[in-house]
Design brief:
With about 180 residues, this protein is of the alpha+beta class. It has 4 helices and 8 strands. Helix 1 (about 5-25) packs parallel to helix 2 (about 70-85). The radius of gyration is 17 Å and the shape is globular.
């Protein structure tokens, strides 16, 4: 995973995400912001882009597995978060200035034997049971001040399962992430 991205690389990725969202909202093809080619941006990693508006989630989509280089993963995740997240209507051109963009770069998920091994704030969580699956990024539980049982109950509901489904027969994987946002720069 690209643990050693420079601030310039992170700023570039944030500008890339914003440009992709704003261009698509206007019905235009996105152009890439200028950047010196950093090898770190070609590395493959799981990536999620989260959009917030006035402090509330406005969209969040990404890739758990490292299927794309960071540039391509951010481009795809940003446009999908803005226009394909089924929980929200597509972002309109008029609201793009009020969006706050956050990028999470993920390590590869690792199975854990029990939910007791999950460390809130450190681990992102993937819950799987009976073919259903859901994910929370590491920052979700701490930002909402949830304890582990609350987090797992809400994750089970997100997967379309009963809220106590995590207690028996579910499997868990964890991952870590580097998180940065426009607010950081």
């Amino acid at each position: 995973m690209a643990m050693n991205l420079s601030d310039d690389d992170k700023i570039f990725l944030l500008k890339l995400a914003r440009n992709a969202i704003e261009s698509k909202a206007r019905g235009e093809k996105p152009s890439r912001p200028p950047h010196t080619k950093s090898r770190g941006l070609k590395e493959k990693a799981g990536v999620f882009v989260s959009l917030h508006k006035l402090g509330a989630l406005r969209g969040c989509i990404g890739y758990i597995q490292p299927d794309y280089g960071l540039e391509e993963g951010v481009l795809r995740s940003a446009t999908n978060a803005a226009f394909e997240d089924s929980r929200f209507s597509p972002v309109g051109a008029e609201e793009t200035p009020s969006l706050q963009i956050e990028i999470s770069l993920l390590t590869n998920p690792v199975p854990v034997a029990s939910y007791a091994q999950i460390e809130l704030g450190k681990h992102g969580i993937i819950l799987e049971k009976n073919g259903a699956r859901a994910l929370f990024l590491p920052q979700v539980a701490t930002e909402n001040r949830w304890d582990l049982p609350t987090t797992l109950s809400l994750l089970a509901r997100k997967a379309g399962l009963p809220q106590d489904a995590w207690k028996e027969g579910a499997s868990f994987s964890v991952f870590e992430s580097i998180v940065f946002s426009e607010a950081d720069y």
